[in-house]
Amino acid sequence: MNQEILAIGFGLVTASILALSAVGFTLQFGVTNIFNLAFGHVMTISAFVAYVVNVDARLGIGFALAAGAATGAIGSVLINRLIYRPFLLRGATLFTMVIVTLATGAILLNALQIVVGTDFHSYTIVQQSSVHFLGMIFTPRQLLIIGLAVGSMLALHGVLRHTRLGKAMRATQVNAELARSCGIATDLVTDMAWLVSGAFCGLAGVALALNLSAFSFTFGNDFLLVIVACAVLGSVGHVYGALVGAVVIGLASEEAAIVAPDLKEVVAFAILVLILLARPNGLFSRTFTQQMNVSAQQ
């Protein structure tokens, strides 16, 4: 029983990292219909920029998180503007865009390897005592990751539900042409969606690197398949569905690690397959489509 409770604690940390990344990934798809497989590489680049701020510039982890979020946000907007959007304007299909994102990821991966090399890196963190809570054990950096995820999710919920930008983003997701005809600047809304999702991507990259003892130039891309699984499980394109998918897979994978660490990804994808057999479009496809249509009409 003690191991199971400890695994719940580890699962909450994993779920927090997955929530940040899966929400960012699904937000990009929801607004632009792009299955961005370069997402993991942007996470990695953001983590290395944070590493420079934290280790080379000797600034605190708060500055490193801010630098990572800014890198992910600006980098994502530039990638969409300079690479993805020109292909979409030329009528590229969904399959073509998947290939384009793969090619973009390959370019980023090789460029990153040239710049940072293949060595492992780690942040400079002051060692502090662990915190015990209800049988679970957390390090201060893990509590930081959980708090960061919770705060970011609440902030995003507030933006989506209670601001004009959030309403414009939901309307653009439901029907971009109709939103444009209603006077919504969909190009600007798209840029803002990539800015917000990129910030989540950057934060996820730094959070993942913080949770690892050391990281290399491939760690973000190695995590991508689990991110995609969370997004698809919760119905890709739906923010709240991605959050639920992150919690389910995060907790289940860490519980499976009690038996064998190699089972973590196996269980994650087994859950995905079982859910998709019952609901091919994900857990929340119908519910969220109805909600989005109502919100857009309002």
Structure description:
By secondary structure, this protein is an all-alpha fold. The protein has a single domain, classed as ABC transporter involved in vitamin B12 uptake, BtuC (Orthogonal Bundle). It contains 13 helices and 2 strands; from the N terminus they run ααααββααααααααα. A hairpin with a 2-residue loop joins strand 1 and strand 2. The protein starts with a helix and ends with a helix.
The counted number of beta strands is 2
Main-sheet strand order equals 1-2
CATH architecture title: Orthogonal Bundle
Specify the helix fraction band: over 70%
Which residue ranges are poorly predicted, with pLDDT under 50 across at least 5 consecutive positions? 287-298
Shape: globular
Radius of gyration: 19 Å
- From the 3D structure, determine the CATH topology: ABC transporter involved in vitamin B12 uptake, BtuC
Give me the number of helical elements. Answer: 13
For the biggest sheet, the summary is: 2 strands, antiparallel
Q: Give the N-terminus to C-terminus distance in angstroms.
A: 49 Å
Counting structural domains, the number is 1
User: Mean pLDDT across all residues, rounded?
Assistant: 88
Task: Report the structural category.
Answer: mainly alpha
CATH class: Mainly Alpha
Amount of beta strand: under 5%
Topology:
Blueprint: H1 2-32, H2 39-56, H3 61-89, H4 94-116, E1 131-133, E2 136-138, H5 140-162, H6 164-174, H7 176-181, H8 186-211, H9 219-222, H10 224-233, H11 239-256, H12 263-278, H13 285-297
Helix pairs in contact: 1-5, 1-8, 1-10, 1-11, 2-3, 2-4, 2-8, 3-4, 3-8, 5-6, 5-8, 6-8, 6-13, 10-11, 10-12, 11-12
